[in-house]
Amino acid sequence: MSADKFAALRNKFNEFEFDRGAIFHHGAAIKLANIDALTGSALTNPKDRRGQNLVGPNELLYFVDMYGGPGGFPE
After folding, report:
1. Is the whole-model pTM more than 0.70?
2. Cβ-count burial 26-48 (b if 16+ within 10 Å, e if not)
């Protein structure tokens, strides 16, 4: 596969890959944002099976960072 075709496919499937100047500083955070985007914000706006929000407008969203060793992944 040519380098140009590979780059085009990479950009298509990972829209956050080259957005490093924005709010992210670490590649893993970009990957996590991409997963969130691909799942319809299932990580940042979780819903139950009926489509109801699991987190209220004035509630904090808590999560467990299973990978959170040294580095920027917990962003």
Report:
1. no
2. eeebbebbbeeeeeeeeeeeeee
